[in-house]
Amino acid sequence: MGTSLAEKNDLSFIETSALDSTNVEATFQTILTEIPHIVSQKQMSDRAEKDMSPSNNVVPVHVPPITENKPKVQCCQNI
């Protein structure tokens, strides 16, 4: 039952026994090695999705400078 449930839900399955310690150490070691691998895959997947998002399509916009028709006053001219 446990194996079919795990396969159905795309989960790992390891049968253990606390009574005689069957597969307890191996399960612990497997979990310790699988977690970083899963996290790394998730981060790469998230990064790929972010790279494909429209917010990363940057288009430069050039705005011409605004010129005013005021005559330029030289420094200290009105003293």
Essential attributes:
P-loop_NTPase; Small_GTPase; 79 residues; mainly alpha
Please give a structural write-up.
- Residues 53-65 have a biased composition (Low complexity).
- Keywords: Nucleotide-binding.
- Residues 42-67 are annotated as: Disordered.
- The protein is mainly α and 79 residues long.
- It has a domain at 2-54.
- The protein is 46% helix and 0% strand.
- The protein is built from 2 helices and no strands.
- The radius of gyration is 32 Å and the shape is rod-shaped.
- The chain starts with a helix and ends in a 27-residue tail after the last helix.
- The mean pLDDT is 81.
Shape: rod-shaped
N-end to C-end Cα span: 96 Å
Write down the secondary-structure element order: HH
**Extended strand count:** 0
Structural class: mainly alpha
What's the mean pLDDT score?
A: 81
Strand-residue proportion:
under 5%
Number of helical runs? 2
Provide the gyration radius in Å. 32 Å
Task: Give a quick account of the main beta sheet: strands, pairing sense, barrel closure.
Answer: none
Measured as a percent range, the helix fraction is 40-55%
**Poorly predicted spans:** none
Task: Give a concise summary.
The chain contains two helices and no strands.
